[in-house]
Amino acid sequence: MKGFLLTRGAQALLVILIMSFVIYSLIGLMPGDPIDQMISADPNMTSADATRLRALYGLDLPIHQRYWNWLSAALSGDLGYSRLFAKPVLEVLLPALKNSVMLLGLALFMSICIAIPIGTLAASKPRSVFDYGVNLFAFAGISIPSFWLALMLIILFSVILGVLPAGGIAQSDAGFWESMKYLILPAATLTIASVGGHARYVRAAMLEVLRQDYIRTARAKGAGAMRVVWRHALRNAMIPVVTIMALDFGTLFSGALITETIYSWPGMGKLIFDSVMGNDCNLALIALLFATTLTLVGSLLADICYAWLDPRITLGVSEQ
Amino acid sequence: MVMLAPAIEKLLGLNANMVDLFNRMQPASDTHVFGTDELGRDVLLRLLYGGQVSLFTGLTAACVAATIGTVIGLTAGYFGGRLDAILMRITDGVISLPLLPLLIVLAALDLEKIGLPDELVNSEEVSFYRIVIIVALVGWTTVARLVRGATLSIKEREFIMAAEGVGAGHLHIMFNHILPNLISTIIVAVTLSVGNVILLESVLSFLGLGIQPPMPSWGNMLTNAQALIWEAPQLAFYPGMLIFITVICFNFLGDGLQDALDPRAEY
């Protein structure tokens, strides 16, 4: 286990390092040069000044040297300034992270609470009307464009009914219910988009478990159908499901980008979008790297959960 | 229906890009079956042309991605050993990346800085090529894994040994003997990914990074509609509904094909 953790940790670090270089180079290829933006507001600046500024900031160096300078500064804790927000990057990043955790935590929680019962019920009566209904519902959830779903919800609840705000976040001094109002639509959008996939995983895992011998034993000993499903099978069926949830934890941070952008929810996803579109190089770089790290941590967590929950699996012995 | 767009255009005597500022945001009527948008253009025709663009982008990008995935999966599965390990680690790495933010960065790149010729960068189709390449770059992983798995099992069969016995080269065995047996796997993977690609295309176009107006696509039609949800909510309804129906159809098709072609899946 320890060896496995070390190997996977080292692999993840390597991926992060490679990604930091890739993202750094990509950001350099985006339109807009930081120096051009600095001097465009000032007509007194000449091209000689621009060259001098470029040398001052080290922007005339070849890319690998610039990357190295950036990396050593970042590792020593200097992440730079955000141009859009005129604050150090970290001060912008942390509140966004908090907002994202709030939104995604709620969405994931609701999704799990709905997916586990309906997935289990569907699997306990395969090929029933309910099963087909869940399947249709799951496909609808996977196929629905989340930004369109968000628009439809805004039209229904904000434009036609006028009961919920169309976007944004409550003032910090607002009461609990007032701030919940802003959370409902984005969280509902994310939940609808993910609950179908989760229900399908639960159903597939449950069907797999219900075929096992010990389920037949439990049935033979006279345990009722409901007892077999909920007491004997569910616990084992949860193993792959927990893994999927851990994977989702990582990907959701960036995956909520569209939902957050449409509802103007100031989370990580919107931050990434805004910083990329607004040519805020420092912020975009760190936010993207952060999202990558979270995704990798999520997949590492998924593997650990898997081994921890299921003693039959030994990690690191062979990788298929 | 989508294929018939030009015919319907003639029939209605309208033009998809024809601007009619006197009839902006009309509700459905006899001349404009689905009404008109903020510039007085006919929504039905724009939906049909947008469908051509969205479907064509989806199919092309899925096929390009499948080609990359097949070559990588086939190579990894056939040669095995160290090459397999390296290729699969790369695949794992790409899978574990946050997809959407990277797509947005790629879509925002300044093509002139990469050194592409000017006439290409400024041509109308560049947004189409760009989106196909971007989606293909990140979309090949599923196919690669499936193809590798299938290759591993096929290469142990007797007829491969027979082919080796008569002196066939590696490339010949890979493409003439193994590839035909992978077709069903690849078809399933492509069908399932077309839906995803259409979703990605619509998201990027919706954010203004994909297909550029005036060329209509279902995604960029929604961008304009978002600004107008207070005045004309019906404009936001149709394109999204069409994306939804198309994607769900491809997903059902892929799922059905998977069940039909894979006898091991019992349910």
Task: Give keywords.
A: 320 residues; mainly alpha; MetI-like fold; 2 domains; two-stranded antiparallel sheet; disordered C terminus; B: mainly alpha; 12 helices; 71% helix
Brief overview, please?
Helix content of chain A is 76%, strand content 1%. Chain A is an all-alpha fold and 320 residues long.
Describe the protein in words.
The complex is a heterodimer of chains A (320) and B (267). In chain A, helix 1 runs antiparallel to helix 13, helix 5 runs antiparallel to helix 6 and helix 5 runs antiparallel to helix 10. In chain A, strand 1 and strand 2 form a beta hairpin. By secondary structure, chain A is mainly α. Helices cover 76% and strands 1% of the residues of chain A. The longest helix of chain A is centred in the first third of the chain and has 36 residues. Chain A folds into 2 domains: 78 residues, no CATH class; 220 residues, Orthogonal Bundle (MetI-like fold), CATH 1.10.3720. Chain B has one domain: MetI-like fold, CATH 1.10.3720.10. Chain B is 71% helix and 0% strand. Chain B is mainly α and 267 residues long. The mean pLDDT of chain B is 76. Chains A and B meet through helix 1, helix 6, helix 7, helix 10 and helix 11 of A and helix 4, helix 10, helix 11 and helix 12 of B.
Strand order of the largest sheet of chain A: 1-2
Separation of the first and last Cα atoms of chain B:
34 Å
CATH C-level class of the largest domain in chain A = Mainly Alpha
Tell me the name of the CATH homologous superfamily of the largest domain in chain A.
Answer: MetI-like
Task: Please give the share of residues in helix of chain A.
Answer: over 70%
For the residues shown, what is the average pLDDT of chain A?
79
Order of helices and strands of chain A: HHHHEEHHHHHHHHH
Q: Most extensive interface, residues per chain? A: A-B, 53 and 42 residues
CATH topology of chain B: MetI-like fold
Straight-line distance between termini of chain A: 17 Å
Classify the fold: give the CATH topology of the largest domain in chain A.
MetI-like fold
Percent in strands of chain A: under 5%
What class, by secondary structure content of chain B? mainly alpha
Helices and strands of chain B, in order, run as HHHHHHHHHHHH
